[in-house]
């Protein structure tokens, strides 16, 4: 079935995202814009995913638990899971690898945990935007161990991307999909990088503000509208 997606959205848990990006607001904005399936991908944390998924159940839109991980090489990778418990376990592991640098709200912004009613349930004290201790080399296998899948984010950006950090794709890197920003020229990237042949292209908003959640544009053809179907599709034949 044809499903409109946005698989890269931040909530108010990300320090750089607007405090109005509450689970209720962001999920319902995505619903208004006509999306069928979205993923919540805060920096280095899955802490608001459970609440957003509950809002999704009410709103009638699939919310996939996820994270935008910053690798030790400072490469952003979107990690998606088909199960919230495993997603949260992965989040705990990622947190254990991070340098415990305290967030300074006045500089970086708040990092708010929220319940499904948009009440503040706590704050993350460690700055989430720093690099984790996880290298991109081992990331696909690590995420797979939690039942998830990962892909490099915004490869066309000149910061925090696999190309800006490494200059090229390591040929041994076992990835099955990659993300471009909505405006990027896919012909350029497929033409320039042999590595990308046959890989699945995803385009998402990377929204940090409600107004960044654009009208639906990009879709996938999935067996059913579920996190399980999405993760299975993105894994493709990577484990064969
Ligand atoms: Zn990013
Ligand atoms: Zn992002």
Structure write-up:
The strands form three sheets. The chain has a six-stranded mixed β-sheet with strand order 7-4-3-2-1-10, sandwiched between helices. Strands 5-6 form a two-stranded antiparallel sheet. It has one domain (2-235): TIM Barrel (Alpha-Beta Barrel). The chain has eight helices and ten strands. The chain is α/β, with parallel strands linked by helices. Helices cover 28% and strands 21% of the residues. α1 packs across α2 (49-59). The chain has helices at residues 23-32, 49-59, 84-97, 105-108, 139-145, 162-166, 186-192, 227-235; strands spanning 2-9, 37-43, 62-70, 76-80, 112-114, 120-123, 149-152, 177-180, 200-203, 219-221. β5 and β6 (120-123) form a beta hairpin. The structure holds zinc ion (2 copies). One zinc ion is lined by residues 8, 10, 68, 206. Residues 8, 10, 68, 206 line the site of one zinc ion.
Q: What is the name of the CATH superfamily?
A: Metal-dependent hydrolases
N- to C-terminal separation? 25 Å
Question: What value does the average pLDDT take?
Answer: 96
Share in β-strands: 15-25%
How many domains is the backbone divided into? 1
Which CATH top level class fits? Answer: Alpha Beta
Q: Tell me the strand order in the biggest sheet.
A: 7-4-3-2-1-10
What is Rg?
16 Å
Instruction: Please give the count of helices.
Output: 8
Question: Which second-level CATH architecture applies?
Answer: Alpha-Beta Barrel
Structural class: alpha/beta
CATH fold descriptor: TIM Barrel
Helices and strands, in order, run as EHEHEEHHEEHEHEHEEH
Percent helix: 25-40%
